[in-house]
Amino acid sequence: MGSFASQPLEPVKFVATPEATSTAKPAQVTATGAPASPEQAPLFNNCWSCRVLSGSGLIGAGGYVYWTARKPMKLGYPPGPGTIAQMIFGISIACWGVVILADPKGKAFRTG
User: Fold this and answer.
1) Confidence tier at 104 by pLDDT (50, 70, 90)
2) Around Cβ 46, how many Cβ atoms within 10 Å?
Protein backbone atom coordinates (compact mmCIF):
# COMPACT_ATOMS: atom_id res chain seq x y z
CA MET A 1 0.00 0.00 0.00
CA GLY A 2 1.07 3.55 -0.55
CA SER A 3 3.40 5.08 -3.05
CA PHE A 4 7.06 4.33 -3.58
CA ALA A 5 7.97 7.63 -1.90
CA SER A 6 6.28 6.59 1.35
CA GLN A 7 8.32 3.39 1.64
CA PRO A 8 11.54 3.53 3.70
CA LEU A 9 14.78 3.41 1.78
CA GLU A 10 16.88 0.31 2.18
CA PRO A 11 20.67 0.66 1.96
CA VAL A 12 22.34 -1.26 -0.84
CA LYS A 13 24.91 -3.74 0.40
CA PHE A 14 27.77 -4.90 -1.81
CA VAL A 15 29.34 -8.29 -1.25
CA ALA A 16 33.14 -8.23 -1.40
CA THR A 17 34.96 -10.96 -3.24
CA PRO A 18 37.28 -13.25 -1.23
CA GLU A 19 40.35 -11.75 -2.95
CA ALA A 20 39.41 -8.25 -1.81
CA THR A 21 38.90 -9.30 1.79
CA SER A 22 42.24 -11.11 2.04
CA THR A 23 44.22 -7.97 1.09
CA ALA A 24 42.22 -5.62 3.30
CA LYS A 25 43.94 -3.79 6.14
CA PRO A 26 43.29 -5.16 9.64
CA ALA A 27 40.76 -3.29 11.78
CA GLN A 28 42.15 -0.60 14.04
CA VAL A 29 41.95 -1.44 17.71
CA THR A 30 41.60 1.16 20.44
CA ALA A 31 43.33 1.06 23.82
CA THR A 32 40.36 -0.75 25.39
CA GLY A 33 40.49 -3.53 22.80
CA ALA A 34 37.30 -2.53 20.97
CA PRO A 35 37.61 -2.02 17.22
CA ALA A 36 37.55 1.62 16.15
CA SER A 37 34.73 2.79 13.92
CA PRO A 38 35.68 3.83 10.39
CA GLU A 39 35.81 7.53 9.58
CA GLN A 40 32.51 8.72 8.14
CA ALA A 41 32.09 11.23 5.34
CA PRO A 42 30.54 14.57 6.35
CA LEU A 43 26.76 14.73 5.98
CA PHE A 44 26.72 18.22 4.49
CA ASN A 45 29.17 20.08 2.28
CA ASN A 46 31.45 22.50 4.11
CA CYS A 47 32.15 24.89 1.25
CA TRP A 48 32.33 28.60 2.05
CA SER A 49 29.33 29.57 -0.09
CA CYS A 50 27.18 26.88 1.55
CA ARG A 51 28.12 28.11 5.01
CA VAL A 52 27.49 31.77 4.11
CA LEU A 53 24.10 30.98 2.63
CA SER A 54 22.90 28.75 5.45
CA GLY A 55 24.47 30.84 8.24
CA SER A 56 23.01 34.12 7.01
CA GLY A 57 19.65 32.44 6.44
CA LEU A 58 19.59 31.18 10.02
CA ILE A 59 20.60 34.60 11.35
CA GLY A 60 17.78 36.19 9.34
CA ALA A 61 15.25 33.60 10.51
CA GLY A 62 16.33 34.05 14.13
CA GLY A 63 16.04 37.82 13.81
CA TYR A 64 12.55 37.48 12.35
CA VAL A 65 11.40 35.19 15.18
CA TYR A 66 12.91 37.52 17.78
CA TRP A 67 11.43 40.73 16.36
CA THR A 68 8.02 39.11 15.86
CA ALA A 69 7.96 38.25 19.56
CA ARG A 70 9.17 41.72 20.50
CA LYS A 71 6.55 43.63 18.49
CA PRO A 72 3.74 43.39 21.13
CA MET A 73 6.17 44.53 23.82
CA LYS A 74 6.76 47.75 21.87
CA LEU A 75 3.01 48.37 21.93
CA GLY A 76 3.02 48.19 25.74
CA TYR A 77 1.83 44.63 26.36
CA PRO A 78 3.60 42.82 29.19
CA PRO A 79 5.62 39.80 28.02
CA GLY A 80 4.31 36.37 28.95
CA PRO A 81 6.21 33.10 29.21
CA GLY A 82 5.42 32.24 25.58
CA THR A 83 6.81 35.55 24.36
CA ILE A 84 9.99 35.08 26.37
CA ALA A 85 10.37 31.52 25.04
CA GLN A 86 9.88 32.76 21.47
CA MET A 87 12.55 35.42 21.96
CA ILE A 88 14.98 32.86 23.38
CA PHE A 89 14.26 30.52 20.47
CA GLY A 90 14.91 33.32 17.97
CA ILE A 91 18.21 34.18 19.62
CA SER A 92 19.17 30.48 19.57
CA ILE A 93 18.49 30.19 15.84
CA ALA A 94 20.59 33.29 15.17
CA CYS A 95 23.44 31.92 17.32
CA TRP A 96 23.33 28.67 15.36
CA GLY A 97 23.81 30.72 12.19
CA VAL A 98 26.83 32.48 13.71
CA VAL A 99 28.36 29.12 14.63
CA ILE A 100 27.93 27.88 11.06
CA LEU A 101 29.56 31.04 9.71
CA ALA A 102 32.43 31.00 12.22
CA ASP A 103 33.26 27.26 11.80
CA PRO A 104 34.94 27.03 15.24
CA LYS A 105 36.49 23.58 14.77
CA GLY A 106 37.91 24.37 11.35
CA LYS A 107 36.29 21.38 9.68
CA ALA A 108 35.88 23.28 6.42
CA PHE A 109 39.61 23.11 5.67
CA ARG A 110 41.61 20.02 4.89
CA THR A 111 44.62 19.51 7.10
CA GLY A 112 46.19 16.55 5.35
Assistant:
1) confident
2) 14
If we measure between CA atoms, which residue out of 27, 39, 55 comes closest to residue 112? 39
Q: Could you tell me which of 99, 73, 94 has the C-alpha nearest to residue 84?
A: 73
What pTM does this model have? 0.55
DSSP classification of residue 6: G
Q: Can you give the residue ranges of every domain in the chain?
A: 54-102
3-state secondary structure of 29: strand
* Burial of 98: CB neighbours in 10 Å, binned 0-12, 13-18, 19+: middle
pLDDT digits (tens, 9 = 90+) for 41-74: 555 556 888 889 999 999 999 999 999 999 999 9
